[in-house]
Amino acid sequence: MTRNPLVAACSAFLFTLAATACTAQEKGTATSSSLPFQVTEAARFEEPWAMTFLPDGRLLVTEQKGKLKLVKLGATADANEVGNITGVPEVAYGGQGGFGDVVLHPQFASNGWVYISYAEAGESDTRGAAVARAKLALDANGGG
Length: 144
Prior knowledge:
alpha+beta; four-stranded antiparallel β-sheet; 9 strands
């Protein structure tokens, strides 16, 4: 599978950011090369696996156990909101099985398609990889 270099670079940055979070929380500031930046906890998750930004700046985050979270970042950390998206496929959780990646369709703004990879149960206690496509339908309050 060929990965988008921008996605790979962002993932590497986020991994580096996460790795420095403990130090940053102790000191209040972390640095990347010579550029200082502030680290602020946005939300807590159980076994997060992947994330993607929606065009309006909110995040979709998969949790390996089978939850899809919608995160709205507020003006302050106390104003952040985390909700569950309903209607997601049932996952076969265990080992590395569960929810995997979440990706927006290139024309997501006009068609609302979201792709999710996950492990599904098979016969005789086996699991297999699956990909689902769904339209993200948010309610009047912006939740799923």
